[in-house]
Amino acid sequence: MPSAAETALERLVSIERPVRWVVECALVIALALLVARIGWLIASPSDVVATYTQRPLPAPMRGASSSLAIATDRTLLVRDNPFQQGEAEIIVQDVPETNLNLSLDGLRMSTEGGEAGNAIIRTPNGIGKNYSVGDEIMAGVTLERILSDRVIINRDGADETLMLGGRGAGLSVITDDSRISTELDSSSQAATPAEPPRPDVIDAQIEAPELLLSSVNAGPVRVNGQITGYRLDPLGSADIMRQAGLVPGDVLLQINGASVMQLDTSDVIDRISSAESVELTVNRNGSEQTIRLRFGE
Fold first, then answer.
1. How far apart are CA 95 and CA 161, in angstroms?
2. Strand, helix or coil at 16?
3. Which of 35, 98, 116, 174 lies in disulfide reach of 110, CB 3.0 to 4.6 Å?
């Protein structure tokens, strides 16, 4: 007789066969479905791939027609300076150039204004020192202000200019052309070939030419860019000018009969300071006036 173990094994084998068949059938069915799915995707992809649909841009980007359009004011780029921090405007003063024996060797201008900055000024002894605003350069002369190409000094209560390029370097810049009055038109007409009648001659005398040069500012007068003369204005009191036969506002035209049109300020100073007497022709209120000026006691 078969034993109990053999009987159990036979029953297990009989059960295994239908279970294996069912599992194999399920795997075959699943594999068939996968193959069918892959074949369907290859044969008909339009049902699974999305088509391109054009969509409108967001409303704020459509332009001015949209109620949500972004409004811009381009004029702000012209009117406003984003880098400006409210600095105070620096005003260049129009003051006469000094005739002191001073030399401006260098300067440092500060945008902070006030007393900022420093200047290197060489005094008559040939020594250059560093000065700040308010420092005394020499007796009665203090540093008043530092600009980009010059400094303003105060000499006994009157402001004067010391240029970086030396004497005469900036007269054409610091002279205000608006001071040229209608009398200059008359002076230009006087230069025409029609020779006017000889004016009266004024005789005058002062102690030394340096006295006159230290009391008068000579600013070049330009007509159509050409120097036609030098306007004479007092530095402080006009007493020395009147003693020399001059009147504030006279326009110097000639020195000893030679026109000053081709002379710079240094040449004018040299011709007056090196002579014992000079004959000056000036334009005064539209007419020429001749002054014979002698130097000495």
1. 6
2. helix
3. 116
How far, in Å, CA of 88 to CA of 107, rounded? 20
Task: Identify the residue with better confidence: 64 or 229.
Answer: 229
In this predicted structure, the answer to whether residue 271 has a pLDDT above a threshold of 50 is yes
| Class of 176-295 in CATH | mainly beta
Q: Which fold has domain 103-172?
A: SH3 type barrels. (2.30.30)
Residue 163 Cα distances to 18, 62, 143, 263, angstroms: 119, 61, 13, 19
Q: What percent of the chain has pLDDT over 70?
A: 68
Q: Exposed, middle or buried, 275 (CB in 10 Å: 0-12/13-18/19+)?
A: middle
Selection from 182, 174, 172, 184 nearest residue 151 by Cα: 174
Average pLDDT, the chain: 75
Radius of gyration of the chain (CA): 49
pTM of the model: 0.35
The CA distance from 27 to 139, in Å, is 118
Domain boundaries, the chain: 103-172, 176-295
**CA–CA separation, 294 vs 205, rounded Å?**
5
